[in-house]
Amino acid sequence: MFDTDRWIEIWVTITRNKTRSLLTCFGVFWGILMLVILLGSGRGLKNSIFKNVDGFATNSLFFYADRTSEPYHGFNKGRYWEMRNRDVETIRKEVTGIDALSPIIWGSRGDRNIVYGQVSGTYNVKGVYPAYFRIERQNLHFGRLLNDIDMQEKRKVCLIGSRICEELFKNEDPCGKYVRVNGLYYQVVGVVKQIASGVNIGGRAESSVFLPFSTMQQTLNQGDILHFLCLSARPGHPIQQMIDDITGILKRQNEISPDDTQAVAVLNLAAQFGMFEKLFAGIDILVWLVGLGTLLAGIIGISNIMMVTIRERTREIGVRRALGAKPWNILSQVMTESLVLTALAGLLGLSAGVFLLDLADRILSAQPSADSDGVAMLHPGVNIGTAVAATAVLLVCGLFAGLIPAWRALQIKAIDAIRDE
Fold first, then answer.
1. Which of 134, 224, 335, 410 is deepest in the core (most CB within 10 A)?
2. What is the mean pLDDT of residues 303-314?
């Protein structure tokens, strides 16, 4: 049960020497403060980096044709080859674990290739499947995205980027209006802006025109050739197995040696994102080690002070033992005093750390560049799980800090303690 007298006694003991208690608690306060600030700063750095790829499929793969490095079936080394529509269909049928699949064909980026009325500009032109927008997600400002009917009927429709809308249409809704793209007219069905700010495929979406792949392939008069193949894997599916399967199909269908390591170029963004995850996991481990080391120094300080306190209270402990106090009473009181000192200092440090991180977040969010690329830190802070973990570590350390002094107090014999000067 809650013993009011015991807690009053503990509080009197702690406040008997205020300066010593404050200096002792400062070590724990500083240790938990540094741990929280380092963890919050690491999270802010992670948020800043991953903001640049937010909206982009982190388990995505990209394939494109390169020159062969091995002679095969009568073809010389150094041959140029191109992917074709049949490759896409075979990959779709034979490769498991694909979430979204889209070939890409690039259009001409000639001078003033996009025209509306008397206004024109030079922008990127891409032909894509509707599934492309599940790999590189977009914010839709007006209208709709391309769909399967656009593909099947080879409609002359297009999506334009937000920058094109701003420069050609002065931010008015352009849906239903026609723009001339590389000499041909297409009806605008939507305006998009790329979500990810640090990753793009062949140019940023806000400066690009998207056409249905089938329409663009026909207007370019290049048969069934495609320039690029991008896809995303389902969660948990082995990426390397998918790379091997797709590479094997492309080599088999295009007369490329199975031993040729150059002909099929692969960009594995899944591996890049995995590397970032491991990097930040390592940073978190390092932060915990540094923070716990600082906290340990404060805990040792509390343990030393408790040893001094036990030495000063030798006669008191002896009298209590002589009057029949059980070992558990002595043990629990000493460990409770240590726990109270640690908890007070630690919770103050935790609160101060959260306050400083929140203050830093408010200051950073108020900056004009808060939403731009290259922000060093974004929303620094600690989540509830980290706060609970830090509190648990703190309380365990407080118990251990009082364990040795409590054991020392139990070794004091009543008769020796009473005679102590």
1. 335
2. 74
